[in-house]
Amino acid sequence: MGLTIFYWIVLLSTFVGIYYLGTKTDLKLWARVIIALVAGAILGFIFGDLAASSKWIGDLFVRFIRMLVVPLIFTSLVAGVVSMGDPKRLGSIGVKTIALYMLTTLFAIIIGLVLGTLFKPGMGIELTGVDPFTMGSSSMSVADRLFGIVPTNPISSLAKGDVLPIIFFSILLGIGIILGGEKTKALGDVFSAAAEAVLKIAHMVMQMAPYGVLSLIAWVAGTMGLSALQNLFVLTVILYVGCLIHIIFVYGGLIRFIARLPLSNFFKGILDAQAVAYSTSSSSATLPVTLQCVQDNLGVKKTVASSVLPLGATINMDGTALYLGIVALFSAQIFGVELTFADYLLIAMTATLTSIGTAGIPSASLFLLATVLSVIGISDAQTALIVGFVLPFDRILDMARTVVNISGDATVSVLVAKSEGELNETEYRNESVI
Ligand code: ASP
């Protein structure tokens, strides 16, 4: 009891310190979020399980962001399409977006396979004593998901928060408003004002980010700790290194050499979103923050941000693909499965499709592992062992892959905006707004 009180005194003092840094020294939000990340990790390591007592602060923060997901996608996507004025442009944005999403996922899976082959994370691991973890068949096939894009009842999709049907309906509504001309112009204005208002709420909610992030990281560090990682140490390190390589070289390369924009602004601009992704392990929950960062800090116009990002949060999961590739090799090494070149291609293909079908929620891909493992002949019982082995520490792996997932969405939004002339470069280059 005494210790819990002590923990709370330390925690609240840290909160006050961070608040003070924000109000008195005018330290930017992203810098406060970084301080919160580090402080949270330290508190977690020192206080261990006690840090779980403040997890609710993080959960509350996540609820606030999630509250904004549906209103934000709906209003800003309709407003975005209307402001485009020409439905054909939507087609060109769509084609570029999907091509870039596929391309970056391909790079991710290659990085995963190369690292998994070079460092052999599964070598020498015995799975005796691991409790197998059997999964329900919650996964939907890619074909079902494609069909489900057309909502039979858009209001019910909005109520359930089904992102793809919402995207589909919003685009159609936007096109309808454009085609209606003068008669429907007022409706377009309503959507654009509503989008502005929701973004303002996102801005307010983000002021809570340092406290929410700190509480979540303290909980992860406190309840899982580094010792828990011993068994999975190599896998964890390889995944983190792979994620870093992908972010720095693939995304960095695209921004620097294809979009020809300075990198430091990009990474500073999306830091808040990365920190929220890291602490929540959910691309969907991070979406409002990603939207806000990309529009306010990187100058991507609503037209592009509102269509590219929600789609990305649903189908573009580079971190997940990279992870699936590494775990496939990890499992093959554990069970002594010899892989041919064709197997590598199969893994790459199924990992890409599975990553598209993965929901942007914590640990989603862990439950889809079976799809990838089955193509290289790993049985359901063996998969259950792998999942049982990885599950307890999956959060730490998930945090890294989610950061990659949302960074990829942001990268593609900048590239598409640049090529469509929808990037406000002055805003992108202006450090003071970040
Ligand atoms: N947690 C990830 C995300 O939300 C998905 C995954 O489990 O890989 O992006």
Would you kindly provide a written description of the structure presented here, covering whatever features stand out?
- The model has no long low-confidence stretch (mean pLDDT 88).
- Helices cover 75% and strands 0% of the residues.
- It is mainly alpha-helical.
- The two termini are 41 Å apart.
- Helix 4 (87-119) packs antiparallel against helix 10 (233-258) and helix 4 (87-119) crosses helix 16.
- The protein has helices spanning 2-24, 29-47, 55-84, 87-119, 142-147, 154-160, 163-179, 185-206, 209-224, 233-258, 263-269, 271-280, 283-296, 302-315, 318-334, 341-357, 369-375, 380-390, 394-419, 425-429.
- Bound molecules: aspartic acid.
- The site of aspartic acid has 16 residues, from helix 19.
- Aspartic acid is lined by residues 281-283, 317, 320, 358, 360-365, 398, 401-402, 405.
